[in-house]
Amino acid sequence: MPAHARGSTDRAFEVHIGALCKPTEVPFMEMESPRWASVRMEAQEEIVRVVPVVGLASRALMTELATAAPGPSTLPLAGIRALDMTRVLAGLNTDTTSHSAEVIKIEHPTRGDDTRAWGPPFAKHIRGKNTESPGESAYFLSVNRNKKSIGLSFASEAGQKILHSLAKTCDILVENYLPNTLKKYHMDFASVNALNPRLIYASITGYGQTGPYSSRAGYDVMVEAEMGLMHITGPMDGPPVKVGVAVTDLTTGLYTSNAIMAALIARGKTGKGQHIDVALSDCQVATLSNIASSALISGEPDSGRWGTSH
Predict the structure, then answer these.
(1) Which of helix, strand or coil describes residue 226?
(2) What is the number of other CB atoms lying within 10 angstroms of the CB of residue 72?
(3) Which residues contact 87 (CB under 8 A, 6 or more apart)?
(4) Is 214 in contact with 205 (CB distance < 8 Å)?
(5) Cβ distance 154 to 106 under 8 Å?
(6) Closest Cα to residue 57, out of 29, 80, 77?
(7) Can you tell me the distance from the alpha carbon of 117 to that of 134, in angstroms, rounded to the nearest whole number?
(8) Three-state SS for 217?
(9) Rounded distance, CA 303 to CA 104, Å?
(10) Which helix or strand (DSSP H or E) is residue 56 part of?
C-alpha cells in the first residue's frame, strides 16, 4: 500500500498502511468467501488492526494485502496495482489478474458485490466454518477470479480515508458509477488526480461523461437494443434477440482494459496518468464492425437479421 506485516498471532495482527484516522470500525471481506473481520484504524500508531472472526483464512489474505509488491514475475502486469470500484460485470475483467496485476476490489460493506448472490449454481466452501453455506456464486467467480477484496462504505469519512490511502499507491482505478456520483465522496478524477497524478482513472458509464444521455443509467440489454446489436441478431423471419451473454458489458470491459494498457505506455513517456471515458453505447457501436461500416459507406439501411448466415 505500500505496506508490510508487523507481526501476527492467532487472534490479531497489524499492517502498516500510513496514518488514517481516529479509531473506528469498518468491515473487511476476503474474496474466497463472504466471511468478515473487524478492521480498526488507529492513527497514532499508523496501523490497521485486523481481528479475524473466522480464523486463519482471513489472516492469510490480509497478509497478502500487506505485501508491498508481487514477487518477481515475467508476466506483463507484475508490480501494477489496480483499485476496482466497479460493480456487477462492466469493469476490470480477469485478464488483468491473469497477467499478474494486483487488483483490490471495493465491495458493499454488508452484502458485497451484487453478483455474490446471483445463483445457483454456487461453489461450495471446502474449508472453514462456512462449509454448510450456499457458497460463492459461479457468476461472481467468473468475473472476479484472483482479485482481493475489501468491504467498506465510502459514504463515511473513515471509508474515504482508506480509499485515498489505496489510491495514492495504485497505478489504476476503475469505476462504473454515473458521472459526478463520486465527487461528493472525493473519489472523482480531479480529487484522486490531486492525490496521485500518475494514477490512470477509468470511468465506465452507459452513455459517457458528457452529452444529453450522460445522466442515464446504462444496462447491457438496453444498449444492445438501442445501438443495433439486437436488430441484427436472431432468425431472418423472427424478432430481435438478445445475445446469450451480456456481451456489451464484456466488450466494454475489454475496451477499457485496452485503453488502460495504452495509458500505462503513455505514462511511461509523460509520467502522468489520465482520465479514460468509456461508454457501453460507444463500445457497442464499435463492435458492430462491418455492419456499421457498410451502412455508413453505402448510405443504405442494413439488411437486417441473417440468423447463423454470414
Answers:
(1) helix
(2) 7
(3) 113, 114, 176
(4) yes
(5) yes
(6) 29
(7) 10
(8) coil
(9) 45
(10) helix 56-65
β-pairing, 136-137 vs 122-123, is antiparallel
- Residue 125: the pLDDT is 85
* Distance in angstroms (rounded) separating the CA atoms of residues 263 and 274: 7
Q: Give the side-chain half-sphere CA count within 13 A for 9.
A: 4
Instruction: For residues 52 and 168, give the distance between their C-alpha atoms in angstroms, rounded to a whole number.
Output: 26
CA–CA separation, 104 and 100 (whole Å): 12
Cβ atoms 80, 263 nearer than 8 A? no
**Which cell is 141 given?**
467467480
**Single-letter code of the amino acid located at 285:** V
Judging by DSSP bridges, how do beta strands 13-16 and 25-29 pair with one another? unpaired
Which H/E stretch holds residue 98? helix 95-98
| CA neighbours closer than 13 Å in the CB half-sphere of residue 169 | 18
**Cα–Cα dist 163/154, whole Å:** 8
- 51's enclosing H/E stretch is strand 47-51
Could you report the per-residue pLDDT of 176-225, keeping only the tens digit for each? 999 999 999 999 999 999 999 999 999 999 999 999 999 999 999 999 99
pLDDT score of 96: 66
Q: What are phi and psi of 149, to 5 degrees?
A: -145, 140
pLDDT at 310: 74
CA angle 170, 78, 191 (to 5 degrees): 10
Q: 5-50: per-residue pLDDT in tens?
A: 333 333 332 333 333 333 333 443 433 333 333 333 333 333 333 3
CA 210 to chain CA centroid, nearest Å: 22
Tell me the sheet residues that pair with 137: 122
249 is catalytic: yes
pTM assigned to the model: 0.75
Over 50: is that where the pLDDT of 282 sits? yes
Q: What angle do CA 55, 60, 62 make, to 5 degrees?
A: 105
Catalytic residue among 249, 277, 282, 302: 249
Task: Please name the residue that has the C-alpha cell 499508523.
Answer: 46
